[in-house]
Amino acid sequence: MKNLTATLFAFLCTVSVFCQIQKLKITTGENLLYAQLTDNQTTKDFIKLLPLTLNMGDLGNREKYSGISSELSTKGKVQNTFKKGDVAYWLGGGIAVFYNQDGHEIKAGLVVLAEIEKGIEIFKESESMNVTFELIDK
């Protein structure tokens, strides 16, 4: 019975995107960053757009932002606050990477898609940058 349970669990994990350890690879110029994905419907919708390259501009010396042409689900946890390292879907229709925490509240709301593990400082380097998001297995 124990082997049957383990086999069934292994099978279910192979059909689920989030049972695998998947990460978001973020590239800007020569820099590579990795982020841990958040398990929600908004993230699953975002994954369907990948790979995705955006020209992201600076907003408020706290985030890089770009609009996107696709509307994502809002079934993830909607919040008005962020933390440094969050990659989020702005409910107004865009993707934001937060590199500085200034206490600003996002009135339209956000759903966090992923959390950058380290290296977030690269987003401070210029006013705008091309950023590529890709899904990788790790």
UniProtKB/TrEMBL annotation:
**Domain of life of the organism in this record?**
Bacteria
For this protein, the record's Pfam families field holds:
Cyclophil_like2
| Gene3D superfamilies recorded | 2.40.100.20
Domain (Cyclophilin-like): give its ranges: 26-134
| Protein name, UniProt field | Cyclophilin-like fold protein
Q: Which InterPro entries match?
A: Cyclophilin-like, Cyclophilin-like_dom_sf
